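Changelog excerpt

This revision adds worked examples to the README so contributors can see how folded entries look when concatenated. The first example is reproduced verbatim below.
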Amino acid sequence: MEKINMVITIDGPVASGKSTIARLLAQELGFYYLYTGLLYRGLAAILVTHYGYNETQLKHPRKEDLDALLTGNRFEYRYEDGEPQIYFEGKAITGLLKTREVDNWSSISSADPAVRHAVLERQVSIGKLYNVVADGRDTGSVVFPDAVCKIFLTASLEVRAARWQRDQERLGKLFSLDESMQIVAERDERDRTRSHSPLVQAVDAYVVDNTTLSREETVSIIKAHVLKALS
């Protein structure tokens, strides 16, 4: 009999805290953490640095390049010691994927249907191997529509912009709050209006607004809902 794994999805806009919350929730539940955004970042970065793509080419990557990259184990997602990692040809490249430049490349390439389909297949294959907490933009609506529990995490634009600003500061990038709000608002608009797999709240998702909540409070609320759903 085929093993049925449990999948919990956490979707939401940029800087809603979904990646942090999903990772902490996975640790508390003993689940595998699937950071879907890291897959897109890794794929985009490799297309630029290894295949020589420019931003125009990223809009529609060549099928032969996607096939070559995603066949076998050249491009791997691993969850090791509580941290998500991307490996390319056996070398960890995760540390190179946290820049605004890579974020922009990822946003461009992930709008392409062929890229979405290729990454979706990789995500689904991971969901067949483990009990998973997955975060992203469409994990509950498209990637894992039959997930046992779906969360949609959100917060005010001001709070999300401040979080994004702090994240960039940790990377040595300085932005004013006004600049951060503009960047986050533009990303929101792009994510909501893209023609393929836009940011969407699954109809059966449990909505959590963490504008005034700490990480610990957010995890506690979501964990309580998950345990209730699993009981």
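The second example, added in the same revision:
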Amino acid sequence: MVKNVQESKNMKCKAIYFSAAICFLAVLGMVLSFVLTGGRTEQPKFTPPPFEETAQSGMPDVADESWTQIYKDGMNFSTHVCGKVVLNGNSADVYLTNDEGNKVWLKLRILDEEDNILAETGLLKPNEYVKTVTFDKIPKSGANIKLKIMAYEPDTYYSAGAVTLNTTVGG
């Protein structure tokens, strides 16, 4: 009987030590997560994208055969863009157009295969276009790139959809 009482006390001690170790590890995990995140509890502030400084009103007169309308049933917008990107130094004419009648703002990002931003426009209001985009990183001729057109709801900047075109850098 004395042996059973002693074993019972040993089991209780082991359970207490085990529980204390688990509590210590949990507190340590919370402290580490607080330290690693810098104590931030609020989301970073959203900075709305700027409007395109070189935007022009209307529909451009484009001779490039690759300038085409992008629209499918169910999309919240239609747009026009040159699918063939030909570099001229560090820029290319893309003629991104936010078609008249749209109720969204559009912007273009040109991405490499790893989704790094090579170039981007500012926001375009409906019935505006931007002729030329300037590259921060210049891709090689023949490189695979993506033209990502993103739509934003006016005033709230909520996403109204996006479309991505895969193409290559020409000439």
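Reviewer comment on example two: The two ends are 93 Å apart (CA to CA). Residues 2-36 form the longest helix (35 residues).
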